[in-house]
Design goal:
With 304 residues, this protein is an alpha/beta fold. 35% of the residues lie in helices and 16% in strands. The chain has a domain at 2-167 and 200-227 and 269-284: Rossmann fold (3-Layer(aba) Sandwich). It has helices at residues 11-22, 52-62, 76-81, 83-104, 136-151, 175-184, 202-214, 232-242, 286-291, and strands at residues 2-6, 26-31, 43-46, 66-69, 107-113, 156-161, 164-165, 190-192, 196-197, 200-201, 220-223, 230-231, 251-253. The strands form four sheets. The chain has a seven-stranded parallel sheet, with helices on both faces. The protein has a two-stranded parallel sheet with strand order 7-10. Strands 8-13 form a two-stranded parallel sheet. Helix 1 (11-22) packs across helix 7, helix 2 (52-62) packs parallel to helix 4 and helix 4 runs parallel beside helix 5 (136-151). The termini are far apart. Bound molecules: NADP nicotinamide-adenine-dinucleotide phosphate (NAP).
């Protein structure tokens, strides 16, 4: 298949490009500031995704079989810092890609987040549960889901995913990279023991996205996550153990003890039905996710 991939330089986009190329697909990789590195990319093209007219021209020229949208302002704090940009990349871009995919007859896969939920549920969220985001990032992602479904009613896939593990191109985007970089700066990061998550590796999500790219019989909103649930603090402890670092490099804190953090989602775990029984890919265990991680460079700094 000819696949147009946005956000190809991101944590997930890079993993998807690698997986799709391994399976023999032609990947045309779009990026903004960081050149994609996946070996075997058909073409890498720099486009600021705010320029929707350029994306239209490119899509009509290439006429891809599938469009995979991994581009986003993916950090809640970056969304808060520049809500206008976030609206353009997180909402206007997916709306436009959805319209284009309908015109082209292309398969559209859009990536969303567990943060469309407020985390108040005691049960793992089902894909049919009513979203209710508690931050602006989650709101933009929910708006995008609705745009995608509205403008491509026949064949869209929205895949909601949890916090991602893995190795990013610039070494700054995944959970372990941010944690180890903070420790290397001499900080003792605070991790919440009452924030429950279901982390997954970017490579595992990429395999799921790839199966969904090829499976035109599956459409709608799906949930995917790792095989285990744990607190953010436990995640941190297991990352430290994996890298043989002292367990007291992070602090355990309770978000419910501090009103500043009270609004953060407590429980963002997913019920993976129905796709877990329809795909060959299985949710990755946390040990499998840890085994893929590279050590982050700053930890080897003599100034540490
Ligand atoms: N990471 C997580 O833990 C997580 C959790 C849940 C859901 N998600 C979702 O998963 C998807 C992928 O996230 P990720 O972690 O791979 O994000 P990421 O590493 O931050 O990558 C974001 C990608 O978007 C591109 N991008 C941003 N602004 C752009 C612009 N103006 N024009 C063109 N491209 C632009 C970036 O390009 P450059 O790098 O070239 O600037 C990069 O390729 C997103 O939809 C995100 O919301 C992520």
């Amino acid at each position: 298949m000819k696949i147009l991939l946005t956000g190809a330089s991101g944590l997930l986009g890079n993993a998807y490009a690698e997986a799709a190329i391994r399976r023999g697909h032609k990947v045309i990789a779009l990026y903004n500031t960081t050149e994609p590195i996946a070996h075997g990319i058909e073409q890498s093209i720099q486009i600021d995704a705010q320029q929707l007219d350029k994306i239209t021209v490119l899509a009509l020229e290439l006429w891809p079989d599938a469009i995979i949208n991994c581009a986003a302002i993916s950090s809640p704090s970056d969304v808060d810092a520049d809500p206008k940009l976030a609206e353009k990349i997180n909402v206007a871009l997916p709306r436009h890609l959805s319209q284009l995919s309908t015109h082209l007859g292309a398969r559209l896969l859009h990536v969303s987040t567990d943060m469309v939920f407020d985390g108040h549920s005691a049960e793992p969220y089902r894909s049919t549960d009513m979203p209710s985001p508690s931050n602006l990032y989650g709101q933009t992602k929910l708006m995008a889901e609705r745009e995608v479904l509205e403008h491509n009613p026949e064949d869209p896939v929205v895949l909601r995913i949890p916090i991602l593990m893995g190795n990013s191109i610039n070494g700054q985007r995944s959970a372990h990279e941010k944690l180890l970089a903070a420790i290397a700066r001499g900080e003792q990061p605070k991790l919440f023991c009452d924030e429950i998550r279901q982390p997954c590796s970017a490579s595992n999500v990429a395999e799921v996205l790839l199966e969904l790219t090829e499976r035109r019989d599956l459409h709608g909103i799906f949930h995917w996550a790792g095989a285990e649930t744990m607190s953010r603090f436990e995640m941190g402890q297991r990352i430290l153990q994996h890298f043989d670092l002292p367990l007291n490099s992070v602090q355990s804190v309770c978000k419910n003890d501090d009103p500043e953090f009270a609004n953060r989602p407590s429980n963002l775990t997913f019920n993976l039905h129905p796709i877990v029984s329809k795909l060959k890919t299985k949710p990755a265990t946390f040990e499998e996710q840890l085994e893929e991680l590279s050590h982050v460079e700053p930890l080897r700094s003599p100034n540490r």
